[in-house]
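In practice, a research group might receive sequence data for several interacting partners and want a quick structural hypothesis before committing to experiments. The following worked case mirrors that situation: the sequences arrive first, and a predicted assembly follows.
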Amino acid sequence: MTEATLGGEVPAAPRSGGAAGARMGGAAFGDRAYQLAILGFALFIPLLLVAIAGAVVSAGWPALREFGGSFLTSSRWDAVNGEFGAAPAIFGTLVSSFLALLIATPLAVGVAIFLSEFAPSWLRQPVAFLVDLLAAVPSVVYGLWGIFVLVPVLREHVMPFLADTLKLGRTPFFSGPAYGPSMLAAGLVLAIMVLPYVSAVTREVLLAVPRSQREAALALGATRWEMIWDAVLPYARSGIVGGIILGLGRALGETMAVTMVIGNRHELSASLFAPGYTLASLIANEFSEATGDLHLSALMAAGTTLFVLTLIVNAIARWLVWQVARGPRGR
Amino acid sequence: MTEVATRDAASTASRPAEHAARLFTESLDAFFGEAHVVRDVNLRFDDRQVTAIIGPSGCGKSTLLRCLNRMHETVPTARVRGRVLLAGADGTPQDVYTRGVDAIAVRRRVGMVFQRPTPFPTLSVRDNVAAGLRVAPGGMPPRREVDRIVEDALRRAALWDEVKDRLRESATGLSGGQQQRLCIARAIATRPPVLLLDEPTASLDPISTQKVEELVYELRRELTVVIVTHNMQQAARVSDRTAFMLAGELVEVAPTSTLFTSPGDARTEAYITGRFG
Amino acid sequence: MSAPASRRARPRRPHPSGHQRAFAERTVRTIARRRVVSALMMTLTYVAAAIATLPLLFILFHLVREGAAALGPDFFTSTPRPVGEAGGGMANAIVGTLVVVGIASAVGLPVGVGAGLYLAENRGTRLAWTVRFLSDVLNGLPSIVLGIFAWDLLVRPFGQFSAIAGGMALGAIMIPLVTRATEEMISLVPGSLREAALALGYPRWRTSLTIVLRTALPGIVTGALVAVARVAGETAPLLFTAFGNQFWSTSVTQPIAALPLQIFTYAISPYDEWHAQAWAGALVLIAIVLVISVVSRFVTRARFGTGSD
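A structural hypothesis for the assembly, expressed as tokens:
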């Protein structure tokens, strides 16, 4: 059948080979280039991680090879004699972080419950904003405030209060001289820094609990609090745990604020009043004065330890969240 | 609305050359994975005519439409068998599924308007209409030429008067009906010989629907128009020829008045009388 | 003959009534107690909220009080004076922060946006899942560990601290943040927009870059600015990469000053003048961080207006 041609501006028709071949080359080439480019950028991430792992391990390797397991268990940190054991730093890392979470979690969950259940609408935005803003404050600013405001307050008011007025000084946890810079100070600062993360996650999870759950509980005659405790919180449990672990991860790696208030001493003490070290603050504090390659490598090995510790904690976190999410909800 | 008589004149028997088909399918099959959603369809789309495709939900009419401009294959498990022949500038029909033919080139010659208006939100009204020009074979024309083309397209889409003072504003500020006409203007700005419309008024209010229908009816003067609709009255108002599909098969195709007054197939009759649908 | 005592002595008012009353009283007391508990808990959450908002207010208060005192135009234009001399400023540190953050962005933004595009457009694939997972892992690494990474690769082999090394460490921090923001924003763009572009004859790559990316841009820019604000305040990774510099330097292959580094150095020093400078620096740093957050919100709003060519 013959077809009449249409006049007017008609873009060139597709033809196999020749022009269309070239045009197909154009678009297909563009697509190919684009796909390769974004793939390349995406692959940068795993490569970067491999590079990080390699660098961190290799930096600490001389010390780790020299000391082996004793690096983790020995408390002797003697630059003069070339003996390095990071046990106090590991201990301090764990203690300060757990202390931080101990203080922060009830507060964070409390704030989150306040924001999602009780807050009058005019108060909700400002309070949420202020709490979230805590996450934006740089670590060094927390440290600065810690040195010049928090530590003096601890030294002059809080520690004497705890030790003498509350008579807690008799216990090993609050014994010893109150210098100021201490595990307690570090725990407190970390708690403030970790609070916004736990709170944000908890808030999100609480808001995600369906209205029907809340209404069912209320309809059964529960009080406001009982509804929260029995119907909302269990639903949100896995999310809250995830938030806590997120906070823990942050606390473990926090450097500046901690190094400015913890006292930086290789000491393994049960007392919260005692100064101490964390892996991160150890590196920050001693780097500029590292004497010799072995010392430097020991510091880097502390970094390696921290790296591995963080990976383990995050892995546990993922597993925990997965477990709790699978578990029973509610009672 | 429109005279039934004029449509009858363009009957199949003595088709004048100006309605010779630029687009037709030959034994077209389409699959989503294993699902056979378009079965052996042979359908001709006459030039300067509106062809409507009607049928119940799931009959494959939208899929058939999307095979015409090779949009079907953008879905991962999609497959096509058969031929879709599109006439080139010199008139010779060519299978758009030939190896070596770029789908992009096909889409530049076959415009499409979707069910929901989709103006590009970050572009102004003017830039939306000109969006197709960017990827035209010659590249973007000089600015004044673009302005002329944009005005021309907006006039042909019966939208010019409403937006001529808002050309630089965001396209999302327009009403739903205006946005859909904008999408039509965008599709016809590059003067494709074929325009496909997939239920274009499904999300519009009655007044906008009417405007779009009038527009579609006008556009038949320059283009091959294919419209998929689930609204039989719309098909009756707007099209010259109507095809009825059922379960992937082309049951019947006829001049619109004939199909709706004396359908040849019992299934067609059952559908248009509302026995199912 | 005696009838059973109970029957004979049965009072007019039935015994169960006494039990009923007692039970009712007990229940009322229990409900009352539950209500009290609920009110108490609610109060506790108010207290928690109050306690939680206090630290920020305290910190801001102290920053303003101590920092404003030491802040003058000198602060922004001069470099540090030796100990004992009054005055001086942190001009070099402010500029140094810009340089280091600039380098970080030059690495972090392209990789982040590119990876985010990949993740959004290849959602279900195993590689995408892996990359997303590893991005999260990267996000959780302590910043000092990233400093060690940059030190080992860019400082140790050359025996020299440099702005580039610092920028790399910060860039590594930025990448997961920008990636996640990009992936989320791109995924929010409706598929119908992509389809409309494809139907117009746009090739896939052009659809992604000029239509989809453009639509998602406001959100991506916000995410990028958040990442920038975050790294601008980072100190730990710079401790042994950029290292700090008391003098004016913008060379990327030399140690360079940075605001957070300078604050740290001054804060732990024994000199009062330096302490004052540290407060001033901290005030400036917080102001920068806050300004970036606000600006990012404006960018988002402006972009939703007219798009121009």
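Before designing any experiment, note the following. The longest helix of chain C spans residues 15-70. Residues 303-309 of chain C have pLDDT under 50 and may be disordered.
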